[in-house]
């Protein structure tokens, strides 16, 4: 991943959790997946830099890291406490609701403007028919 790490950058490394069995999409047999590996770094900056590099390299596989065995996708995530994990999930859920409401409001206002400004005198004075395609182009880019 083009990130040099020194032994002094890592405080500890440990495997956590139970071995997982994943169902292959093409077959009905399960395969064993390795347990998660948790790294504890000496500096937050090292951890943040590694997470940033991992975000840039989404889709990274174990083969690209030079590990033996069948290539598996490798994921880098922060290890959160149970409370922080629950709070993060709740925040994502609330964000989805907010986005749904925002999308609904946007569509409602666009429809309202089309019905009331599109062919009205106000719409003609404002040049609504000429403005609307420009606004749509900005939203799509």
Structural notes for this entry:
This protein starts with 9 loop residues before the first strand and ends with a helix. The strands form two sheets. Strands 1-4 form a two-stranded antiparallel sheet. A two-stranded antiparallel sheet has the order 2-3. With 141 residues, the chain is α+β, with helices and mostly antiparallel strands. The model has no long low-confidence stretch (mean pLDDT 80). Helices cover 48% and strands 15% of the residues. The radius of gyration is 25 Å and the shape is elongated. The chain contains four helices and four strands; from the N terminus they run E-E-E-E-H-H-H-H. It folds into two domains: 1-79, no CATH class; 82-140. It comes from Operophtera brumata. This is Zinc finger DNA binding protein.
Topology:
Layout: E1 10-16, E2 20-23, E3 30-33, E4 36-41, H1 44-56, H2 82-117, H3 121-126, H4 128-140
Antiparallel strand pairs: 1-4, 2-3
Total discrete domains: 2
User: What order do the SSEs take from the amino end to the carboxyl end, as H and E?
Assistant: EEEEHHHH
Fraction in helix:
40-55%
Structural class: alpha+beta
* Count of helix runs: 4
Which strand order does the major sheet show? Answer: 1-4
* Alpha carbon gap, first and last residue: 31 Å
- According to DSSP, the number of beta strands is 4
Q: How would the global form be characterised? A: elongated
Mean pLDDT: 80
Protein name: Zinc finger DNA binding protein
């Amino acid at each position: 991943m083009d990130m040099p790490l020194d032994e002094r950058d890592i405080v500890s490394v440990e495997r956590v959790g139970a071995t997982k069995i994943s169902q292959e999409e093409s077959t009905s047999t399960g395969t064993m997946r390795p347990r998660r590996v948790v790294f504890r770094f000496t500096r937050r900056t090292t951890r943040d830099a590694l997470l940033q590099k991992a975000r840039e390299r989404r889709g990274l596989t174990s083969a690209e890291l030079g590990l033996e065995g069948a290539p598996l996708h490798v994921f880098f995530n922060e290890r959160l406490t149970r409370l922080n994990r629950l709070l993060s999930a709740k925040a994502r859920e609330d964000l989805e609701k907010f986005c749904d409401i925002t999308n609904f409001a946007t569509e409602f206002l666009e429809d309202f403007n089309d019905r009331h400004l599109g062919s009205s005198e106000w719409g003609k004075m404002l040049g609504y028919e000429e403005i609307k395609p420009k606004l749509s182009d900005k939203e799509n880019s």
